[in-house]
């Protein structure tokens, strides 16, 4: 039709009124067909000019992206499209593409719907080519929520496989307090039976109270074991969103730094300054960092509590009592390194650190690091630890970075 219209245009003056009307009807029909195709796409589409002003769109793009106004009202506006997008990260991405004249780029984003659910979107900027020449740009919006949820479900299935070990550990832990309760109840029963045989003369008050106190302590212990077990086996309900770990860690370090400083421990934080975002649940991520940092604080206090201010033989991880968190981006992965030069761990403790119910603390449950491991896996991450007794410990947490800046089509304008 387009070539036909061009030929007709050259002979427009010679056309009759009926021929012109017929031509217009053909143009209208073709336009309606193209509009139907546009609306039938499963991908959101925004057609913009080089100034990022909206020329055309389909309804699915309007439903997936959070606009401050109806697209119908801003069609043909002199204002760039990114200024109407309420999601700050998506708006910033498109603004960057305009300012830097980027025509081939793709990035993942998470948005929260009015109902509170999280939707994952891929927003792509691509060149609009007309007869071999750049004639504007396309903004493509794809919903990848289902595939992301499938990945999350897969990780949860893997976590459920650890239930056997947890259940076995729970059974072992319950045996001890139950045995202690049984023994002390029997001792009380024997004392009461003996009292009945001795003219109902009860044993000394302290004797009975001691046994009852122990029974109550073991009951409290059992209750704590059950609550911790329920916490460990309960599926991690992660509300994953794309977040900048640099910013999250900066806030967390500011929160716990005063506590470390009061103990004479220097806290060092080095951000990657990459602006990279990864899929995280902010609350659960906080739990991971706080758990590791509190363990480090205990290790540092244990080593330096006697006023030790220098290394105790061997090469330490860090000079002096220090706690360090540093971030780097490498091979499309975001790597968080958390190091301390506290008392460190033995080879036995290092081998069992993520096992449920293993702890070296008198009041520890042995589930803290198990939960850390579980949460990191929920984020599709990996965690490893290296430690030397008397020298310190290093945790390394690695998260995948969602694919971005994907090259779609070569363009001479870049």
Task: Determine the fraction of residues in helical runs and give it as a percent range.
Answer: 40-55%
End-to-end C-alpha gap: 32 Å
What are the secondary-structure elements, in order, as H or E? HHEEHHHEEEHHHEHEEHEEHHEE
Class based on secondary structure composition and strand pairing: alpha+beta
Describe the biggest sheet?
Answer: 5 strands, antiparallel
Global outline = elongated
Strand order of the largest sheet: 2-1-5-4-3
| Number of H/I helices | 12
- Estimated radius of gyration: 33 Å
Q: Beta-sheet strand percentage?
A: 15-25%
In terms of per-residue confidence, which ranges show pLDDT below 50 for 5 or more consecutive residues? 308-318, 405-414
Q: What is the mean pLDDT?
A: 79
Q: Based on DSSP secondary structure assignment, what is the total number of beta strands?
A: 12
Sequence-ordered SSE layout with sheet pairings:
Layout: H1 2-10, H2 17-40, E1 44-48, E2 54-57, H3 59-64, H4 71-74, H5 88-99, E3 105-112, E4 118-130, E5 133-143, H6 145-160, H7 163-197, H8 205-233, E6 241-243, H9 245-262, E7 266-270, E8 278-280, H10 282-304, E9 322-330, E10 333-340, H11 347-352, H12 368-378, E11 382-388, E12 392-400
Parallel strand pairs: 7-9
Antiparallel strand pairs: 1-2, 1-5, 3-4, 4-5, 6-8, 9-10, 10-12, 11-12
What do these coordinates show?
With 414 residues, the chain is of the alpha+beta class. 47% of the residues lie in helices and 21% in strands. The strands form three sheets. A five-stranded antiparallel sheet has the order 2-1-5-4-3, with helices on both faces. β9 and β10 (333-340) form a beta hairpin.
């Amino acid at each position: 039709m387009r070539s036909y219209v061009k030929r007709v245009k050259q002979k427009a003056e010679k056309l009759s009124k009926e021929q012109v009307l017929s031509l217009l009807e053909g143009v209208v029909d073709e336009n309606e067909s193209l509009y139907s195709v546009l609306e039938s796409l499963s991908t959101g589409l925004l057609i913009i000019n080089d100034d990022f002003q909206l020329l055309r769109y389909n309804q699915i793009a309007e439903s997936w992206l959070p606009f401050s106004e109806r697209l119908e009202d801003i069609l043909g506006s002199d204002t760039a499209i990114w200024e109407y997008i309420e999601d700050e990260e998506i708006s910033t991405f498109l603004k960057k593409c305009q300012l830097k004249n980027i025509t081939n780029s793709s990035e993942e984003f998470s948005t929260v719907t009015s109902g509170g659910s999280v939707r994952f979107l891929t927003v792509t900027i691509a060149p609009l080519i007309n007869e071999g020449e750049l004639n504007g740009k396309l903004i493509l919006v794809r919903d990848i929520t289902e595939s992301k949820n499938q990945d999350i479900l897969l990780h949860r299935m893997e976590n459920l496989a650890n239930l056997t070990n947890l259940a076995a550990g729970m059974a072992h832990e319950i045996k001890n307090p139950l045995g202690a309760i049984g023994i002390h109840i029997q001792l009380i029963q024997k004392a009461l039976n003996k009292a009945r045989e001795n003219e109902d003369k009860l044993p000394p008050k302290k004797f009975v109270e001691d046994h009852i106190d122990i029974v109550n302590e073991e009951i409290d212990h059992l209750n704590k074991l059950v609550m911790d077990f329920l916490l460990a086996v309960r599926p991690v309900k992660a509300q994953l969103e794309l977040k900048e770990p640099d910013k999250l860690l900066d806030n967390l370090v500011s929160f716990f730094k005063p506590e470390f400083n009061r103990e004479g421990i220097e806290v060092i934080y080095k951000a990657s300054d990459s602006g990279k975002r990864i899929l995280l649940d902010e609350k659960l991520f906080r739990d991971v960092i706080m758990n590791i940092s509190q363990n480090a604080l205990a290790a540092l206090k244990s080593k330096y509590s006697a006023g030790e201010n220098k290394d105790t033989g061997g090469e330490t991880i860090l000079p002096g009592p220090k706690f360090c968190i540093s971030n780097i981006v490498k091979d499309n992965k975001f790597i968080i390194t958390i190091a301390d030069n506290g008392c460190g761990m033995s080879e036995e403790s290092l081998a069992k650190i993520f096992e449920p119910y293993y702890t070296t603390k008198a009041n520890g449950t042995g589930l803290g690091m198990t939960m850390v491991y579980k949460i990191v896996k929920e984020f599709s991450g990996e965690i490893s630890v290296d430690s030397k007794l008397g020298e310190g410990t290093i945790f390394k947490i690695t998260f995948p970075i969602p694919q971005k800046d994907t090259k779609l089509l070569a363009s001479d304008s870049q």
